[in-house]
Amino acid sequence: MSSSTLLLVFALFLICCVHQTEAQRGTVCVVLSTGNTNEDAGPIVFNLERKLGTEGNCTVNYELIDETIQPNDIVAAREGNVTFLNGQTMATVEVQINDDDEPEDAEQFRIILSGDSIGAVTSTSAIIADNDFYSPWGQWVGDCSVTCGPANKTETRNRTCIAVRVSRCKEALTDSRIVDCNLPGCPTGWSQWGSWTKVGRCRRCRQRFLRRRRCLVRRCRGPRRQGITRTCDTPGCPRSF
Ligand SMILES: [Ca+2]
Ligand SMILES: [Ca+2]
User: Fold this and answer.
1) Measured distance CA(64)–CA(81) in Å, rounded
2) Could you tell me the pLDDT band of residue 11, with boundaries at 50, 70 and 90?
3) Do residue 171 and residue 71 come from a single domain?
4) Helix, strand, or coil here: 2?
5) I need a labelling partner for 67 at 20 to 30 A (CA). Which of 3, 117, 193, 205 fits?
6) What is the mean pLDDT of residues 93-108?
């Protein structure tokens, strides 16, 4: 056998070995799993699948590329790698996302695989949908129609649409509820008598005084006011009659 023939056989042997090694090790493709999600429903999970062989360990690198996302939208390293162990066919890359408070459009990023063992599909995109449509609810507001005793009141609260597109706000902006007024029980009967107060002017050393009390319930029996006549507190008037 000539030297050129030997060289050709050796080259074919090497090619065959390489193909055999790749066939045994397989290749890894990315399969989008939870590609699109609301920003409060993370993480986004990319499934990686190993095909055409599962012998030995197989490592692929990945990179997360910003397409429209902001720097703080993803709470994860932008680079990493995944190792499939012998016999392993599936693995995942989980990307934690940030549930911010900023109204914004949906945002997109991409995962890209690299390495010696990557397959035909090495990249796919994921979309983070915004969930910031409304302002926080305001305070509950409502008054009771009575000042004491059992009663309910209707309270309302409001919020505003803060979404980038107003059409996204499909839920109510006003909320209401009926709650107990939680008032103290109403007093029974009359209040205490008030102090005596002068009525009119002092005439012939006599002065009319009056005091009143207030009914604290729906109806009361008895006088609402009392009157009395006293000596005027004026020099020259007798001390009493
Ligand atoms: Ca949010
Ligand atoms: Ca947001």
Assistant:
1) 11
2) very low
3) no
4) coil
5) 117
6) 92
Q: State mean pLDDT over 220-237.
A: 84
- Please, what is the average pLDDT of the chain? 84
Give the pair of three-digit tokens for residue 197. Answer: 């107060």
Which tokens in the block code for residue 150?
A: 């059992």
Q: Which residues, 6+ apart, have CB-to-CB distance to 40 below 8 Å?
A: 99, 131
**How far does the centroid of ligand 1 lie from the alpha carbon of residue 67, in Å?**
19
Residue 97 Cα to ligand 1 midpoint, Å, equals 10
CATH code, 175 = 2.20.100
Is 228 in the same domain as 146? no
Which one, of 188, 192, 198, lies nearest residue 233 by Cα?
A: 198
Could you tell me the residue range of the domain that residue 219 belongs to?
Answer: 187-241
**Separation of CA 100 and ligand 1 centre (Å):** 4
**Does position 207 have pLDDT exceeding 50, yes or no?**
yes
Distance CA 171, CA 81 (A): 43
Q: How far is the CA of 73 from the centre of ligand 1 (A)?
A: 10
Q: For residue 230, what pLDDT is reported?
A: 85
- Total of domains in the chain: 3
Q: 235 C-alpha vs ligand 2 centroid, how far in Å?
A: 84
CA of 85 to the centre of ligand 2 (A): 38
Query: Are 118 and 230 found together in one domain?
Result: no
Residue with the bigger pLDDT between 214 and 15: it is: 214
CATH code at position 82: 2.60.40.2030
Same domain, 104 and 30: yes
Give the ligand with the smallest distance to the CA of 162: 2
